[in-house]
Amino acid sequence: MKITLLLHNAYAIGGTIRTTFNLAAALAGRHDVEIVSMMRHREVPRFALDPRVRLVPLVDTRVGSDDMADPLFGEPALDFPAAEKRHHQYSRLIDVRAAQFLRATDADVLIGTRPGINVYLARFGPRRALRIAQEHLRHDAHGKRLRAELARHYRTLDAVVTTTEADAAVYRTRMPLPGVRILAVPNIVPPPAAAPSDGASTVIAAAGRLVPGKRFDLLIEAFSAVAAKHPEWRLRIHGGGAERARLQKLIDGLGLGDRAELTGPRSPIEAEFAKASIVASASDAESFGMTLVEAMRCGVPVVSTDCPLGPAEIVDSGGNGLLVPCGDGRALAGGLLELIEDPALRRRMAGAALASGHRYDPEPIAGRYQLLFDELRATRHGRARRRALGLARGRVRGLLRRVVRRPGGAAG
Q1: What is the distance between the alpha carbons of residues 96 and 71, in angstroms, rounded to a whole number?
Q2: pTM for the whole thing?
Q3: pLDDT score recorded for residue 35
């Protein structure tokens, strides 16, 4: 079977790229697998790609490329949803190349990995192929306009896959899609090459994009309370982003310049987590929580905010880590201090974290995708009937609403 995964930019750094590469490698043991990247801005990917997996870029955005000279390169995208936050990175040339590729593909399974690409998949992907939309963002992270457009297109697909059971439940409730299988499959996080942490360091690590939603400001403020009691401990935040200058100013203002460090991006992150004894996350929201699993795979307990939606499905609070209320800096500091001041508890949680990380091994998750492919093929005709019936009912409801809204159309 031929499987094609569609990515925004396989040459960049990000959790979706990493987990797509991991899934492609896991599926390549059984299938012919390729990754199609909508764009390419550098010569080779930043993440290592399994040699069994082909990488096909559609548009070369490197300075001086032939694609940049194409007149369509300078025109805004029309097919990629305008309400999608990456719309400004898309051009009419990407629209055209994506449509051409999808119309000509001989893939048996097509998997999109972000909302706008899933719209491409719904509009141009061949109906004979299984067409699956992965959602690496939460349903509620999408604006109202985008959700309305996704609902219109997603109802023509075979499946929508979220990363958490909680988000799958939200999609089933708020975006009914007759005939479309909605389910959760977690991301693959393979065992790291680095040896597990020995728990001897006095380092708290964190990682992610330096953006407001990750609340690194809250983590830094919580760490200032930790540092006051335990000045030997250090905080290392790995990642880049627009908040770097503001966060550095906060570190300096709290007098933490020699104890808290913004290191910039690190890849692979596991090598840094293995040097830590605690990994912290202060996010307001997480669609999954890759860094939490990556920390556990390194034998490091985590202290995380209990934000929607991912952490509660990853962290067994009191078992392999601690969950604290979202947005509560005092509680976050308290969780960090609890692990710092109780080395025996920290060691026990580290062992539990290492054991629980096996839930994200490649083979079981690739197996879940294989079961999904088999199920979708077996239920294709029944789902098509449910989809047609659902669309017919939707048209009738829409017609009735229009009749009622007309002057004098309301029934008594």
Answers
A1: 12
A2: 0.89
A3: 98
